[in-house]
């Protein structure tokens, strides 16, 4: 998805004038950088470790399934086999959408075709309508919240699939059941988008990408969901807010923009330019024009994002097995280009890739349409968001920071 940058910025705030603002100025950090915004038992991010409820991300990516991770995040502990079967059955049973949501998605075909709406917008509105169809919508109790979290987890991939069917002009796959009940969450998501049951490798790569995207502490969208939940508003309202926050290219929208950037580099240098100084020259122009390179940098990680290496390795391995071309280029060539861009970024700027960079190449070589990358991020992060909303409701206090006034000095209305 692409969001147009504001054309005129408000005038830059100046330093606070009054002494009363002095303490606030001392405590101020633009973008709340380094500020601790709350406590959580869901996730821990350290420079050298990413942990979901006690389990390290490499361990989860290698040994767990997305359904197991979803259970861990929502129910708070590793499931035993009986709990896992019960959880999977609950999710499969909730996959189908209320006709009101399906009708809305079908009615959005024109907006999607014109580009006035992108899939993240249609997903956001669909989640709002899901709220109207959920008998627990206004109930913020722990039990109701858990039921709603599972329904959202089950239904969001169906929304993503239906949107793709509408975009492609085909009948909705899984209108009655929300897909194929025998397929895993990841495989069913791919099936509903394409009508083709994915290979075991494709399903596993999607599964791992969902594990990696599931949770990341107080990132912008999760924090948004907690701010909304902190007013004692409901889960669907909080999730709609989270989708809005994730859409932006500085956050989840970066997985789409990272692939668009690679396509732009390829269009500029051609296949023969990959691996040559032509790519360095393209990057130098980007640096000279202070262009932000999508899929690079992170507010918290300074030595690299743990998830990026995992997804890069998996995506590259699968790409080596894929025949044919993707947007004109063989799958391994996209990864060769991506690795070259990473190397230049490290050498010239010392900036590491984040998880969105390998995601772009991986989903592209799985033939997933680019505007669906961020909605797929939602299909995973819904677990983290709803775990945080439940945590916020369970021990709530309104989230309300201060600001520093930079407007005009006081004056009389009738002067
Ligand atoms: C996600 O928070 C989370 O946990 C998020 C996430 C999650 O799982 O929820 O991990 C998912 O959102 C990943 C990030 C996706 N966004 C992008 O890939 C967009 C590109 N990245 C950047 O815009 C940036 O790195 C941010 C937004 C991710 C972080 O921004 P910060 O912390 O506010 O850093 P900054 O913009 O102030 O940059 C600091 C310096 C600047 O240089 P100087 O002006 O100091 O010389 O680093 C430079 C920046 O120009 N810089 C970049 C860059 N990222 C940082 N320069 C070029 N390209 C970049 N990508």
Provide the CATH topology of the largest domain.
Answer: Citrate Synthase, domain 1
CATH architecture title of the largest domain: Orthogonal Bundle
Domain module count: 2
**Helix/sheet category:** mainly alpha
Estimated helix fraction:
55-70%
Strand order across the biggest sheet? 1-2-3
Range of strand content = under 5%
Give the ligands present.
Answer: s-citryldethia Coenzyme A
CATH hierarchy class name of the largest domain: Mainly Alpha
What is the CATH homology-level superfamily of the largest domain? Citrate Synthase, domain 1
- How many extended strands? 5
Main sheet overview: 3 strands, antiparallel
Number of distinct helices: 18
Please state the overall shape, judged from the principal axes of the Cα atoms.
Answer: globular
Unreliable stretches, pLDDT < 50, 5 or more residues? 1-10
The Rg value, from CA coordinates, equals 22 Å
- What is the end-to-end distance? 49 Å
Mean pLDDT: 94
N to C succession of SSEs: HEEEHHHHHHHHHHHHHHEEHHH
């Amino acid at each position: 998805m692409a969001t147009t940058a504001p054309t005129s910025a408000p005038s830059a705030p100046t330093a606070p004038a009054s002494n009363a603002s002095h303490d606030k100025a001392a405590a101020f950090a633009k973008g709340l950088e380094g500020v601790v915004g709350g406590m959580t038992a869901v996730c821990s991010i350290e420079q050298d470790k990413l942990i979901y409820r006690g389990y390290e991300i490499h361990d989860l990516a290698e040994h767990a399934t997305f359904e197991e991770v979803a259970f861990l995040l929502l129910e708070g502990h590793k499931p035993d086999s009986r709990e896992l079967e019960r959880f999977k059955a609950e999710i499969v049973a909730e996959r189908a959408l209320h006709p009101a949501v399906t009708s809305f998605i079908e009615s959005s075909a024109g907006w999607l075709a014109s580009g006035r709406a992108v899939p993240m917008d249609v997903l956001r509105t669909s989640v709002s309508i899901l709220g109207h169809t959920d008998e627990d919508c206004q109930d913020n109790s722990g039990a109701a919240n858990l039921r709603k979290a599972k329904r959202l987890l089950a239904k969001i991939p169906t929304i993503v699939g239906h949107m793709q069917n509408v975009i492609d002009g085909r009948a909705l796959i899984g209108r009655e059941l929300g897909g194929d009940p025998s397929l895993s969450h990841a495989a069913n998501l791919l099936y509903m988008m394409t009508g083709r049951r994915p290979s075991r490798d494709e399903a596993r790569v999607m599964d791992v990408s969902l594990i990696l995207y599931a949770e990341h502490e107080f990132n912008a969208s999760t924090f948004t969901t907690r701010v909304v939940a902190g007013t004692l508003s409901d889960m669907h309202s909080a999730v709609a807010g989270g989708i809005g926050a994730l859409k932006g290219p500085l956050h989840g929208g970066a997985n789409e923009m990272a692939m668009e950037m690679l396509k732009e580099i390829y269009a500029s240098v051609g296949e023969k330019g990959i691996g040559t100084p032509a790519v360095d020259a393209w990057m130098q122009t980007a640096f000279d024009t202070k262009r932000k390179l999508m899929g690079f940098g992170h507010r918290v990680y300074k030595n690299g994002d743990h998830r990026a290496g995992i997804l890069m390795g998996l995506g590259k391995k699968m790409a080596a097995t894929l025949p044919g071309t993707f947007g004109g280029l063989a799958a391994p060539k996209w990864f060769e280009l991506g690795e070259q861009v990473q190397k230049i970024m490290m050498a010239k700027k010392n900036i590491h890739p984040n998880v969105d960079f390998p995601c772009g190449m991986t989903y592209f070589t799985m033939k997933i349409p680019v505007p669906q990358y961020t909605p797929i991020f939602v299909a995973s992060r819904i677990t983290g968001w709803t775990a945080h909303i439940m945590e916020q409701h369970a021990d709530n206090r309104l989230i309300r920071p201060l600001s520093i006034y930079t407007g005009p000095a006081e004056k009389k209305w009738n002067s």
